[in-house]
């Protein structure tokens, strides 16, 4: 799968659309990669940039990040608010990392080293020591943890940062899904005991589940990563895994790690406990990125670009009053008062951007003191009396949100197949399914499965060991090694 369109072709398509009123040229089910590229460009979400793997997040997509994560009015600044509810404070650390700090925790950077970008020059002169651009902030933050954590009263110590990070990836880039610079929040915390750290790992994981399910209407599976797939610098990694039905690929939605005491050891983050003994702290780190936006487009994007004629008379006053009421009720409203486009063209334009609910006001509506409300997901139209607009539209938005989640959940569930044997496993993979299989939980077996499934569309790997485990009767064997199975693991190809 390639997500690629030349800049020129895209520009031409965009221009062509303006002139002809036509929208997408490919269907989601026919060429998913091209469809995705078209949607993010023609929906005014992304502009391409002259550095490969870097994209401009236009207001229409940035608003999703903003609204979802900072300002979401009806869920009250959802994620930021919830992070603060966990007792975590926001702070900001520098973009640049010294080489010395970066290699303090060798194991953590080892596998990632090729992805680290360096600044080597200022103007024409070489820097005395090159400076790395943060790919993640463990090595930036933990010296400060070491300095500020002294006694048990300084714990727990909890910091979150909203920022950009840079990872010079060499895999094929895809807007939102895999870009060389992306936005995220990274939470970093330190506790006196493992028990407290464990509890937070799962509290944060559930928060991430809620971002996906409650805000973006995307079902996710909570689970633990295998030893092969976990973050090597930590103790264990938990994940929320989403699924893209059309490509049959799993995708990691966000992660919450328990780092154990590895970083405490390397950065000397110690505290004096009640008995005046020196102890290493237990640490976690967790992050959620702008990948969320890409997953949302991939799961819920559609081919809808209708074009129809309606009365072209502009009823700006009625539109303004409607918008005012809806905004006062905390809804996000955009009035489109452009008079150089036909209503049909405007419908197409907003459909392309994914607006869930359209309110039309024509002369007949005005005469009847009503507006016409059109749902994107079902296409259903209904006339709503002007004095009931706020209640009815709030209700409809709630309903759309729930139905989107249910629809995506059903589609996802239909793509999970249980396999007890290698043959069943391969059949399911070929059918673009995720596979739930009894597993012996041995690293060598996972590497072996990877090797045996390596093909054009990439090897299969464990996505996670779901927290919610089906029954595993005594005597069940691993689908791959035929050794006694220890747990159910979810396998699949992934992004
Ligand atoms: C790329 C280059 C250098 C991922 C990297 O998941 C280092 C890294 O440490 C690296 N790519 N990682 C793992 C990040 C771990 C962790 N950091 C805080 C998270 C969530 C937020």
From TrEMBL:
SUPFAM superfamilies: C-terminal domain of ProRS (SSF64586), Class II aaRS ABD-related (SSF52954), Class II aaRS and biotin synthetases (SSF55681). GO terms for cellular component: aminoacyl-tRNA synthetase multienzyme complex; cytoplasm. Gene3D superfamilies: Anticodon-binding domain, Bira Bifunctional Protein, Domain 2, C-terminal domain of ProRS. Signal peptide: none annotated. Keywords: Aminoacyl-tRNA synthetase, ATP-binding, Ligase, Nucleotide-binding, Protein biosynthesis. One of its GO terms (biological process) is prolyl-tRNA aminoacylation. Residues 71-306 form the Aminoacyl-transfer RNA synthetases class-II family profile domain. PROSITE patterns: AA_TRNA_LIGASE_II. Coiled coil: none annotated. This is proline--tRNA ligase. It comes from Selaginella moellendorffii.
